[in-house]
Amino acid sequence: MSSDIDYRGITLIKFLAVFFMIINHSFVWFLSAGGLKIIHPELLFGDQNQYFYIICNFSMIIPIIAGYNFGKGIHIYCEGDRILNFPFRRVISIFIFLFFIEFLINWLAYGWLTLYHWNALTLIGSGFVFCILLGNISLNLIPLGGIFVLVIYALLDPSRTNYLLKVFFADNGQEYFWPIFPWISLVLFGFWYSFLSKKSSYKLILEIGSFAFLLFLLISGLKYDLQMEVGYVWGDALFQPPIIYIFELFAFFIFLLKICQLIEDKCTFKKYGMIRCYSQGILYIYLLHTIIGYKFSSWLYPYFLKYPGLIFYSFLLFICLFSWLIGFYALRLLVDKKIVLSRSSISGVSTT
User: Mean pLDDT, the chain, as a whole number?
Assistant: First the structure.
């Protein structure tokens, strides 16, 4: 494996993803009271919800970031174009750990009836397993696997009447999110991209192609972008988007990573500043801010109905600072002191 791999920018891009994830969750908890339909449009910019989904792109690239970060953590196990000597039981332990955390969030935040509902961490854990399975054969199979997922996604139109179909294809964004089709392709693409060296012709082509693609979307007025149905915060349009949106997210990740690399070249982040704390504590922030944030927003909801602006923006300030505190202790206790989580547990997800 080439040592000429550029991992700059990952700290800043993880911070941005976490920051906008917090904002997006806060919008959903108040905007729709946790449901599908918008019942408080006054929180939006005008009477449309398209602006919300433009900033939503920052958090929708989290599966790519997870795949990229996972690849960064295990690139030392690669020789040539294969992953060698990476214990399969390790990725299975990561898979089980992420499933446990997701189900714990579901139970503590939303109640035991939602215990087995599919969400981001279950998707990412599944993606890691597929990355290792394909990578043991050849790294070149990984992007092909992502494309295969998109082809199947384009061809099938399931009724989603049972649990497995909901896991594979979601259920109109009601209770099952981040379905395997098409979202696992982003984990695969991110993982593969992490192995491209700075001098790789593939990487140069992807960077130029991504910039051109995003420019095309802007010139076209986002005509081909994700178009949400007015009056809804999520649903099929978000979790079962057109395939072009998946490619847009990958292009956006490549573009944003390049920008973050340029910024990191010029800046030094404080050890316990918000950027490093959000970046290093991403998993723990996701866990605790979801549980505490959802419960607290539900308690605040009657007051929100009387003073929507004051309550919402006060809550947003609180949850951002609270997440900073979570990241601070994650960085100080779990990274600096090297307590609890070793590389064999959640490598590539939170603390690396």
Answer: 81
